[in-house]
Amino acid sequence: MKNPYLTYPAKILRIQKESSDSNLYTLKFEDPKVQKAFRFNPGQFVVAGLVGFGEGPFDICSSSLETGSLEICVRQAGAVTKRIHQLKIGDRLQIRGPYGHGFPMNKLANRNLLLIGGGCGFVTMRTVILDYLKKPSAKQKLQVFFGVTSERDLLFANEFDNWRKKIDLYLIASKPSAAWPHQVGLITNLFDKVKIMEKVGVLACGPPIMYRFTLERLKKLGIPDTDIYLSFERRMDCAVGVCQHCAIGSFYVCKDGPVFSYDKIKDIPGAI
User: Fold this and answer.
1) Domain with 31 in it: what CATH number?
2) pTM for the whole thing?
3) Alpha-carbon gap, residue 272 to 133, rounded angstroms
4) Of the residues 9, 44, 54, 149, which has the maximum number of CB atoms within 10 A of its CB?
C-alpha cells in the first residue's frame, strides 16, 4: 500500500509574482520517475512543505496535460506560506499528493462551462482554462467570471490576453482604483451584464458568501443543482481524512471533495 504521507522533493524552477501577496511556483520532481507518473485532474490539490518546518494544502493550477512540471500558487497568509515566499529558484519543496476528487471534466465534455472564481479561489480555475487552451473543443465554450476586491488581487493577469483569444473572460472588482477599466461591484453583478450560455455546467470556487448569492442567481437561470460544482478547497487540511477539520456532514472535503455537486451538499447545515 502506498504511504499517503510520503513526500517527494521538487525543485523550484520558476517564481512568478502574481498579486500583492501571491506567487506562482513552477516545480519539478527531482526523481524523473515520480515526475513522469504524476497525474492529476482539475480541482485536485497537493500538500507542499519544508522538512522540519511545516506543510499546507495547495491547489494545483498548471495544465493537467502538462507532464514536465507542476504549478501551485501560494498566498502568504501564515508561517508556512511566509517561509515558502522566502525560497528562491533552485530551492526545494516536499510534495505529496495529488489528493481528492476534482471537477468531472469528462461528464461535462459536451456542455458549455461557466467558471466562477472569487479572489484566491480563482487559482483552481486556471487548470481548466489551460487545459481548454491546449485542447479546445468545438462542442464547448468557456465563460469565466473572476471577482476580486481590487486590481491588487488579480491573479495570472499577464495571461489574460492569451486566454481571451479562445474564452470569454469577465473581470469585476468591488473596491478598485479609479483607473480600473472593467466592471465594478460584486461578482454576482456580472449576471446582469452577461448573457449566460445555454446547456451550461458551472464550476465555482470562492468564499461561502460568494456561493450563497451566486447560487441564488444560478437558480433563477434554471440551472439544475446537479450541474453546479463547488470547490471547498479552503477547508482542506491533512488531506487524508484523519484530522477531521474538513468535515461537512458525513463528507470529508479532502477525501470526498474538494469538489462537490451542489445537490450533494445543499441540505447539510453549515456547508455554505
Assistant:
1) 2.40.30.10
2) 0.95
3) 32
4) 44
